[in-house]
Amino acid sequence: MNAMSTRRIALAVMAAACLAVPSARALDPGEVVDAFEAVLGPVTTYRPSHPKGLCAAGHFVGNAEGTRLSVAPVFSGQRISAIIRFGVAGANPNASDVARSTRGLAIRFETARGEQWDMANISAPIFGARTPEMLVAGLLARRPGPNGQPDAEAVRRFVEANPDSQLQGRWLASVAPPASWATTPYWRVNTFLFRGQDGQVRPARWVFQPVAGTQRLTEEQMRSLGPNFLMDEMRRRVAQGPVEFDMVLQFPGQGDDLLNPTVAWPDDRPRATVGRLTVTSVEAGPGGPCDGISFMNLDMEPGVAMSDDPTLQARAAPYAVSLSRRTR
Ligand code: HEM
């Protein structure tokens, strides 16, 4: 880990220590990771979320619309280096690639001047928790008891009290899993504030749209492909040429909730394509530079700032704690 990463982690932990989350008592970042550990066991080696994954590299180039809509260096139009991690959701490093769960696209942008911007995107337009407290309560409700199983009654009570925790699962059940990491959109479910060249600040979410188009598994493929096809499929694909995604901003309309990531904004809201991400190489085996990175979802001031979405504000510090536990 370089000095810059260490400094950013320290800043993130300090920021979270001062963070006022809307609850009776602010969650401690360690407490969030403890909740993951209560369900999964100690965080060692693997990420507690999206532990299965493939590290890749490439670049991002912002277009004229991106330069207009954000003064952040990533949208300057220069070629920006990117370290990319494709993931499979859940807590199991051997999770099945045909599971109806989310796939992840985590990116670290690095400018020539050494500025960094990290983000994590998922292959669903919504998240499974409205607040960090809800995420933690959902994890703790699923904590295994003495028989190794969660208490069904505790899970039932949690779901009854938090019906919106079911929305993402319902969306995932309604579509087949992606046929490739290269053929699914990846949404940024939280709102950010974009400061444009004209000085205006515009709230926006975004989606990385696959240039290859969206392709999902057929029922037959779900039976025949087996649980581990994604990595080799991606390696074959990138060996034949770059894999590309267009970054598309979506702007809210009247009445859209800016701070609730369990609700997507309607499709008819205005959009703007702001640049293209190109994946040029993937790691031949496990590991690679992604292992030492926690894609912490910081902002890139002054051009992209975090909104007050509590699941966004509360991210950096638990990610830092998780990174320090799995790399100690
Ligand atoms: C309360 C909010 C959240 C908490 C506490 C949380 C916590 C975590 C933690 C602890 C990790 C492992 C970090 C590491 O060890 O490097 C992680 C990874 C991840 N999270 Fe979250 N998360 C939250 C919300 C979200 C949301 C809203 C998204 C969707 C955009 C998301 C997407 C991801 C992805 C894709 C990864 C894996 C990144 C990678 O490949 O390294 N998380 N999360």
CATH topology descriptor? Catalase HpII,  Chain A, domain 1
Detail the poorly predicted runs: 1-24
Alpha-carbon distance between the two ends: 12 Å
How many individual β-strands?
A: 9
Bound molecules: protoporphyrin IX containing FE
Overall CATH class:
Mainly Beta
**CATH homology superfamily name:** Catalase core domain
Structurally, how many domains make up the residues?
1
Determine the fraction of residues in helical runs and give it as a percent range: 25-40%
Mean pLDDT: 91
CATH architecture label name: Beta Barrel
Give, in spatial order, the strands making up the sheet with the most strands: 4-3-2-1-8-7-6-5-9
**Radius of gyration (Å):** 19 Å
Shape: globular
The number of distinct helices, counting runs of at least 4 residues, comes to: 10
Order of helices and strands: HHEHEEEHHHEEHHEEEHH
> What structural class results from the helix and strand content?
alpha+beta
Major β-sheet annotation:
9 strands, antiparallel
How big a fraction of the residues is strand? 15-25%
Structure in words:
- The protein is α+β, with helices and mostly antiparallel strands and 328 residues long.
- The protein has one domain: Catalase HpII,  Chain A, domain 1 (Beta Barrel).
- It contains ten helices and nine strands.
- The protein has a nine-stranded antiparallel sheet with strand order 4-3-2-1-8-7-6-5-9.
- A hairpin with a 5-residue loop joins strand 3 and strand 4 (116-122).
- The radius of gyration is 19 Å and the shape is globular.
- The model is unreliable at 1-24 (pLDDT under 50).
- Bound molecules: protoporphyrin IX containing FE.
- Protoporphyrin IX containing FE is lined by residues 32-33, 47-50, 53, 85, 87, 104, 106, 120-122, 127, 129, 132, 135, 189-190, 261, 294-295, 311, 314-315, 318-319, 322-323, 326.
